[in-house]
Amino acid sequence: MKGPLIVLGLLLAGCAGQVAEPPEPVTVRVEVPVQVPCRTERVQRPAFAVDSLPIGASIAEQMRALRAERLQRKGYEKRLEAAVAACM
Fold first, then answer.
1. Residue 75 resides in a domain
2. β strands within 1-88, DSSP E
């Protein structure tokens, strides 16, 4: 009865004494976004049509200026969006 227990104890002691080889170091590439300064020209604010209206302008003149300003603003916004997109 003692014989098999001694053999079992020796086998377990032999397994416990084995040292596993340390794993080989592995190089891992990590890509981290880095902030880069934006190099676009500053978009100049246009002179909008409503800004040049006299105070006593008629309703028709004001409406024409507002319609023109709407087109100016759309173009200005597109230039701003293009400048922002160039920086991303």
1. yes
2. none
Q: What is the pLDDT of residue 18?
A: 65
- Note down the domain range covering 58: 39-88
C-alpha dist (Å) from residue 9 to 13, 15, 19, 20, 40 = 6, 10, 18, 20, 76
Number of domains present in the structure of the chain: 1
- The reply to whether 12 falls in a domain is no
Residue 40 per-residue DSSP state: -
Q: Would you state the structure tokens that stand for residue 35, as one six-digit string? A: 């902030």
Gyration radius from the chain CA atoms: 39
pLDDT tens profile 1-41: 778 888 878 777 766 666 778 889 999 999 998 887 888 88
Phi, then psi, of 81 in degrees rounded to 5: -65, -40
Could you tell me how far CA 32 lies from the centroid of its own chain?
A: 11
Residue 10 resides in a domain: no
